Amino acid sequence: MLIVENQQLLTTRSHGDMLVHVFRPTASGKFPVLIVFTEIYQVTGPIQRFCRALASHGYICISPETFHDFEKPGVALAYNEEGTAKGNAYKIEKTLESYDDDVDTVVQHAKTRPDSTGRIGVIGMCLGGHLSLRAALTNPEISSAVCFFATDIHSKTLGREKNDNTLELVAAGKAENAEILMIFGRQDPHVPKEGRDLIRQTLNASGANFAWIELNANHAFVRDELSKGRYDAEITKHCMGFVHELFHRTLHLLLEDVSVRPDPMGPGPKKC
Predict the structure, then answer these.
(1) Cα separations (Å) of 91 from 38, 71, 159?
(2) How does pLDDT run across 45-63, given as a tens digit for each residue?
(3) Which residues are catalytic?
(4) 212-230 per-position pLDDT tens digit
(5) How far apart are CA 181 and CA 144, in angstroms?
(6) For the domain bounded by 3-252, which CATH number is listed?
(7) Is the pTM of this model over 0.85?
């Protein structure tokens, strides 16, 4: 499916204007929305290519610039020591309130777009994986969430307070409205085994509707940027199969209960 790209400025409640990058099919009509949360580097080349690939499957992809509090619109940080240091500093300087305000702003925009069906999914990697999970926990309008190697959940260190409540929201059953897919690499130094176990156990105990995938991969294995030698095209290809299945079922198929797969054998015999 052919796509077109543009940018829009959205006004948040209390943290200024935020630039969002929009990728949507050129075809007329309405489409589900995928909010694509980025790594600490903002909307880089790999993120743009990721959005284009998703949009070509029939979605409006909206990727916000998370660090609009600190950077001018259109700035992407480099995949080097300087860019990494700056992104990590912004990540803990930005308040949790600002993160959540940004998500609410994009969700409201997604709901009211004239080309949107009103059905919303979220997806992100690294910092964006954490933001995707928080979005699903705090916004009942979100039907499904994909979280690639989500950081800082197990350590509760997102935001200036360094004491975020994401795991508490999971434990409180706030994930009841969305189906969640968590994907991690077992060789990820940012989310060690103990951290992954904590997240999975908390999701299990809460009764959340989720799927869990662990692979022999490093952090950021989806990012097609070779500077740090982490990209794994083959594993990424298989992961995206699960991603497309989830979003197609929860956003495209208008089932009465999209969280339950239809029985492939059809309904049982009717009672006389």
Answers:
(1) 12, 12, 6
(2) 999 999 999 999 999 999 9
(3) 126, 188, 219
(4) 999 999 999 999 987 677 9
(5) 8
(6) 3.40.50.1820
(7) yes
